[in-house]
Amino acid sequence: MSSQASTQGGKSIFISYRREDSQDVTGRIYDRLHQKFGHAEIFKDVDSIPIGEDFRGFLEQNVVGCRVLLVIIGSRWIDNPRLQQEGDFVRVEVEYGLSLGITVVPVLVGNTSMPSSDQLPDTLKDLAFRNAIPLRPDPDFYGDIGKLINWLTDKAGIQPAEEKPAVIKAPNQVIQSKSPLKIFISYRRADCGPSAGHLAEKLINH
Fold first, then answer.
1. Which of 3, 9, 177, 14 is nearest to 104 (CA)?
2. Comparing C-alpha atoms, which of 141, 151, 79 is closest to residue 108?
3. 101: left (phi over 0), alpha (psi -120 to 50) or beta
4. In this structure, is the dihedral angle defined by the CA atoms of residues 17, 142, 166 and 7, taken in order, positive or negative?
5. Residues 164-200 pLDDT 10s
6. How do residues 5-44 score in pLDDT, each as one tens digit?
7. Which residue has the higher pLDDT, 59 or 203?
8. In sequence order, what E strands does 64-130 have?
9. How far is it, in rounded angstroms, from Cα 13 to Cα 71?
10. Residue 99 and residue 1: Cα distance in Å, rounded?
11. Measured between alpha carbons, how far is 201 from 32 in angstroms, rounded to an integer?
């Protein structure tokens, strides 16, 4: 059984984010959602906009076809001056989601607080009243992303893809395996926590 968005030719989950704010952790989020739901259900990057096409119409088409718009909000999201510009990609994505009645979910990463309505442009003020989900840094990331995935499946009605056994690595834990441990990742959380986590999941699941 496919989801409604898939039958309409769109993708069920639209991920809105700003690279300089949350690129690493968004990569981790995408990897976990991709593992659960498959590539065909997720729109992540404006790089997929065809050359020469009006990005406003392209983004609107993809937002209209989705069930859920995830707005990834990191510590620098609200302070980026481009958010005040009408043609900003991130602003356009969220505006479409709010105006079209799509389920818009703020996803707070890196212990970021939800922006207040006073901090947002007029067209985005309703975002401040959408119930957010926090995705905290390791070791809480795994439990938090699990809650998001469960909500997408149980409440948003997005059907999982054919599932493969997943191996989950929490920080400072040894992976239980019949073969000897071959790769040890040393990192400092304050320096490169999201990047190290993203790298670990890539190595584990490939």
1. 14
2. 141
3. left
4. negative
5. 444 455 555 444 444 555 666 676 766 666 666 656 6
6. 343 447 999 999 999 999 999 999 999 999 999 989 999 9
7. 59
8. 68-73, 103-109
9. 11
10. 29
11. 9
